[in-house]
What does this fold into?
Amino acid sequence: MSKYKNPMDEKNNKVLKETEQQADKPINKADLFNELNGLKINKSEKENHRLNIIGKEEITRAREILQKYKQEKQALESRIVNDEEWWKIHNWEQIKKKDLYNSEGKQNPNGIETPSSSAWLFNSIINKIADFSDCYPEANIRARTGGDVSEAERLKNILPMILKRNNYFKTYLAGVSEKCKHGTGVTYVGWNKDKDGIGDIEIQDINILSIFWQGGISDIQKSRNVFTVELIDTDLLKEQYPDLAENITSDSNNELKKYYYEDYIDTTDKSLVIDWYYKKKGKLHYCKFVNDIVLFATENEPDEYPNGLYDDGDYPFVFDTLFSMQGSIAGFGFIDVGKMPQEYVDKMDAGILQNVLMNANPRYFERQDSSINREEFLDWTQPFVKTNGNLGAEDLREISVRPLDSTIFSQRDSKVNEIKEVTANRDVSTGGTTSGVTAASAISALIETGSKVSRLAIKGSYDTFEKIVYFIIERMRQFYDLPRCIRITGDDGTENFDSYDNSNLKLQVRQTMTGDTAQYLPEFDIEVAAQKASPYSKAAQNELALQLYSAGFFNPQNTDQSLACLNVMDFDHKSDIVNQIKKNGTLLDALQQAQMQLQQLQQENERLKIMCDLNIDNSNLTGMKGKQQGSSPNVAQASTSGSSDMQSTKPEGMQSVSKSDKGSLAEQSAKKANESAQPR
It folds into this structure.
């Protein structure tokens, strides 16, 4: 139960006490609260209804705060709405509003009437969005403690399926598109208790026109309140909240900044539903209301939400900005940067087009007393033009139109290049290359030089994705109490199914070095990298791999030199190359050890062979001793010595012989060899 005491409790209890005194009988609190708030609720609802903390008074105060946030956001909303017209290539309409007509709507006499809208800026932004698409992120979950390594690996495998279920690739593209166009993308990561029957994580992109925060801050978590608004059909609301259907009416005063739509949109039967997020006593609370009717409030359900909406206490929104602005969460995008040169190009194109049309449709000076038949003169289908007399030299004279100077076209081309430069869209990044540049590494180097802005923007989106993954883990930690069967696809394409719950994400007990037990909450580090790179980057990596192979980096004998060289190099997936080279070095060491062992075995085998021959020779000498009793002492000594040495070697089986024995055996072997070499 929540220990927070709301002032509304004292107020409601006071009214309840006074009412009971007047009625001289106990009064049901739920009935009294409903009466105070003007709600019509049936008897079954009255029996189950509890005294609410969030009521009509709190909703009125929330509306006042929302109206204040809207006023602080007016300039940003107007800029975004106008920039959206540039995105839809409605350039000329915006130019007319700015230059061709004054504030009273009267036409500027110096304005250009011939419309012209080019898509240079649109193309630049599309290329930037494609850069983000080529660098779609993936997360690597790493444990902070040794006991959570296996859980980190499971989270790494489960996370892609959660993203896939939420169609995150579409959400990611929507967010980066808003980021490139208007400078800010917003993503929501929350919990939908009705999703898939048992509830699940929900990830959505949020229209920046439908979210409101406290002005003058640069971090959404520092806002006192956060509001999101949505127009929903009133009849659908009544179906979703049948208990409050009689109190829900269409909201005709649905003040919401809208884009300029080409189609007419009727909002008369819609209601403005407001989601109100606020922090109180370190907890995040949530309230959904329409008009003055509370549809849901966490403070009104303290048993179900004792810690507020989410245990982490953070607003479930992640902002991704392109070019940040001081004192604002939102930023500005490529449209704001490139629309001035785009306007310049459009005006020049309009002037060029007007000049072409003037030359294509010449005008003439005509004397008032001229005898030319105008109708026949203007009708090019008539081969003859009749006159009422002779034509004088001044009866008709063509109005000359000066052709455009070549410097105008040069200036126009420079403005087109300016659009490319300010939006960081050089030709090489859009598929073109400098003449004579064909190597993948050289092309990649040019791309790297011309894509610094893209890399910076993508790095910012990776930071945003890291926060999104953090929120996903926190939602799993709080709500994944029931086991869920999740399909896991391995790197080799094999599919397995894993039953997962949050038991290993809750508080864990471990033993300290002193032998005591302590509780800790598993925490993880999130590393984000590109799931797929651009074709040029892939080609450059392939070429680098071939260069390393040609240089002998993968030769096991060059392991130390290769690692020393890689230590001063920097490229993507460098750790994989280092690990492979280390494996090669380990295999070489194992091979060398095996060769040494084999060599030792061969030497041991040779020694065993010699000892066997020695045993045979000594046996022969012993037999000869028995037959030759009168032999010389030297022979007997040698025989005895040999027999003694042989006996000393027999217990071990494989002992080395003395130098004297080796000499006698060598002499005998040499003698036998000479005898065998003599012809018989």
In short: The chain is about 50% helix and 15% strand. The chain has a mean pLDDT of 78.
